[in-house]
Amino acid sequence: MTTVTADPAPPSPPSGRSARPSRLRRSWEKHWYAWAMVLPVVIVLAVLIFYPLFRGIWLSLTNLTEANQAAEICTRSITGGEVCAENPNRWEFVGLDNYLNVLSGNVGDFWQWTGITLIWTLGCVVFHYGLGLGLAVMLNRPMWGRGLYRVLLVLPWAVPAFVSAFAWKFIFNERFGLANSLLSSLGIDPVDWFANQWTSLFTAIITNIWLGVPFMMVALLGGMQTIPGELYEAAEIDGASAWQRFRNITLPGLRPVSMTVILLGTIWTFNMFPIIFLVTEGQPAGGTEILVTGAFRAAFEGIRNYSLASTYGVLILSILLVFSMFYRRALRKQGEVW
User: Name one Pfam family in it (predicted).
Assistant: First the structure.
């Protein structure tokens, strides 16, 4: 009778170690070249975005200003030398005091600026989308000179923002502007556009509409050209009117593009600094300041308050993050994958 002996069992892995390499290590071994290509981008993002972001969050938790940033205060003596002493008001960690002061209204005009920012953003984005959609519908139809019209309508987007800002500021100049010249020719008294809060904000909104409509038009036009033409042909055969085809085919077909450009337009407009800063300059008496211009003035005008400016920056980021979260949740409820 033969005796069958079993093969010896493989040795068990040492305690504390996994039998297989980790998922990250397997990914590195298999796709090391992809990681190598991504690494420079990660380094650039870390230097240009992540470091300033975390630095700003840290500064918002201090009371750092131009006056207390130096460790020593030096003065000249009558003999011509310098006498240095430790700064008794050296900046320090204050926790959430800046946020409490800003949100309670003790420092700055956060709530007024927030209200103006919301009005500014809503007004601009509504007209951006509405006018952009109308122009996209027009340019999506066969017409003579369509290519020329597309180029001309994209030109405002190609012009630098500060050039357009100075041009529109001159148009609304009280004495020499084209707007008041047109009103005078109609027998209407000239308007001092920047003396009233709402007319001043109106000039900024008009300027930003001029700048932002081309982007919406190009994006929506691209979305329209992806909608199958067979849908329009079938609807026309069924007797659908132009409005019915637009409402039941064009708008649903544009929904993915529309949701994206509205989100991008909201974020860009919310942070649109040069138009308010160059066109209205916050006139009258800070009545048209928005959050980003308020943060700029805190950081670079008067005694520079770096901690306060950082606090505004963190609050702006928080508002946009919360808006993006709710916006994404609303899209998911509507069945959009985003």
Answer: BPD_transp_1
Geometric angle at alpha carbon 145, from 142 and 148, rounded to 5° = 120
- Looking up tokens 């039941």 gives 248
pLDDT band at 105 (very low <50, low <70, confident <90, very high): confident
Helix (H, G, I), strand (E, B) or coil at 84: strand
> What are the tokens at 337?
């994958």
Q: Any residues with CB less than 8 A from the CB of 307 and at least 6 apart, and which?
A: 59, 60, 61, 62, 63, 64, 65, 91, 94, 98
pLDDT in tens, 244-293: 999 999 998 898 899 989 999 999 999 999 999 999 988 888 889 999 99
261 contacts 216 by C-beta, under 8 angstroms: yes
Residue 198 CB: number of other CB atoms within 10 A? 9
Q: Which amino acid is at 257?
A: V
Question: What's the CA gap between 215 and 182, in Å, rounded?
Answer: 29
Contact status, residue 59 vs residue 306, Cβ threshold 8 Å: yes
User: What is the DSSP code (8-state) at residue 268?
Assistant: H
Phi, psi of 37 (to 5 degrees): -75, -35
Point out which residues pair with 83 in neighbouring strands.
75
* H/E element, 51: helix 51-59
Number of helical (H) and strand (E) elements in the chain, helices listed first: 15, 2
CATH topology of domain 98-333: MetI-like fold (1.10.3720)
